[in-house]
């Protein structure tokens, strides 16, 4: 099954971002992708952290969710909707940062709320997701069936989750074929750790990793690292988009994963 990761440089304007996302989903589908994943906050990179609260949608209703459902149906793909802010009942000061997955028929098949909230302060740049978000609590893995009838186990995660290998161990019981990591890594943390961590998660779980990212200079002045990437089960980088908007594509290869797991049966050797 061909899989695609979309890289964007999202703006403070939701409608503009949705139009660009729809075009890139179509480009990936036209190239043969059956699964397409968007980056974290594909729908909005606001001027202020609180802007996400202004566009947060109720679960199951809103223009962002409508766009994702329609795009999945019209393109006939499994669509991983990067992330979008979803309202929390009774709260206006916090939201969830949520990944939604839609099937080729446009129906929603999964929801994952980001568990680990990012905080960073190097004296020049400061980020604290807990100021506007509440964390999720539950790992989510799903089974997707491709057009050939093969079923793949897919684990969901978001950005800062990448630093917590225990989440991926929980997702990989039973083992996953693919781990998804939509992200908006900061430039300094991405430059230092993004590829290193993606390859580590692929190697230790002997599966593929699909990591769509924000990649460039945003109107709010923030610069995201980009380097949208697809990594194989041996830790090899199969495709990468360094900066700017684009789409990268590779194929899920069950035979290659089986070969890696047979040659080095590390998953069978786990003790803890």
Automatic annotation (TrEMBL):
GO molecular function, one term: nitrilase activity
InterPro entries: C-N_Hydrolase (IPR003010), C-N_Hydrolase_sf (IPR036526), Nit1/2_C-N_Hydrolase (IPR045254)
Residues of the CN hydrolase domain: 1-254
Annotated keywords: Hydrolase
EC annotation from Swiss-Prot or TrEMBL: 3.5.5.1
Pfam families: CN_hydrolase
Protein name: Putative nitrilase protein
Organism field: Methylibium petroleiphilum (strain ATCC BAA-1232 / LMG 22953 / PM1)
